[in-house]
Amino acid sequence: MFDDQVFDDLEDQLIMSDLGVNASAAVVDGIRRRANNKSFKSLDDLREALAEEIAKMLELSERKVDLEVTASRPLVLMMVGVNGVGKTTTTAKLAAYFQRRGSSVMLAACDTFRAAAIEQLQHWGDRLGVPVIAQSHGADAAAVAHDALSAAKARDIDVLIVDSAGRQHVNADLMSQLEKIKRVLARTDPEAPQEIWLVVDGGTGQNAVSQAKSFHSAVGLTGVCVTKLDGTARGGMVLALSNELGLSIPFLGVGEAPEDLQPFKAKAFAEALVNAPS
Known about the structure:
The protein has helices spanning 4-16, 21-37, 43-58, 87-100, 117-128, 141-154, 172-188, 207-219, 237-245, 266-275, and strands spanning 75-80, 105-110, 132-133, 159-164, 195-201, 223-227, 251-253, 261-263. The chain has 278 residues and is an alpha/beta fold. The protein folds into two domains: 4-61, Up-down Bundle (Four Helix Bundle (Hemerythrin (Met), subunit A)), CATH 1.20.120; 67-275, Rossmann fold. Helix 4 runs parallel beside helix 5 (117-128). The radius of gyration is 20 Å and the shape is elongated. The protein starts with a helix and ends with a helix.
């Protein structure tokens, strides 16, 4: 039987693993209730209960991106995020994911702000055999989005992925540009964009929650993709994102290859988080 100090220490460890104060407290409360109902004979029992509690909290964030339930074509997926989180690479990985499932894909190079961003996406387009709609560096990103959606409709494309410029979530001007892209897409197709996903770096910690709140307020997020989980990052803030904002977690990035973008599974994620080296 474990005493209160063990549970207090566990809560501290969860907070330091970026689960957030509220989520950590909720998880430990669940484990305390379990302990009152049955005895934990070993640390393995405690670890198993911890993984089960985390998985239970994350179940609602697990979702399948099913194109069959989308009435209109194309499904427009808008990617947003701060600088350096791997947004353009995640865009390309998503293109490969949908391709493997038999869907036609088009990319919109709406990051007209960062040097070489257009070329980076075009390189991925060539590598995957996916058309990329682009204009010159410094062009109006919303105009690029409009052209891309018009082209996708004309070519009967299944999925259009819009790669927007990375921007700091405290930059009002750049956030306004995102809002403009969303408005222009909706004028062309009232249902677009059907999905707006924030890309966050798994090593960001609790700052990811601040990012998500700002982007959610500006454009209304439908999901979060967590990248760079192939290194030391444990991605504990996924629980905070789910607990505080109720956001779905469609995909996790666990490597550099296109196939290293994996659908989020609550049980597998919880077990990996609990069993990760300290």
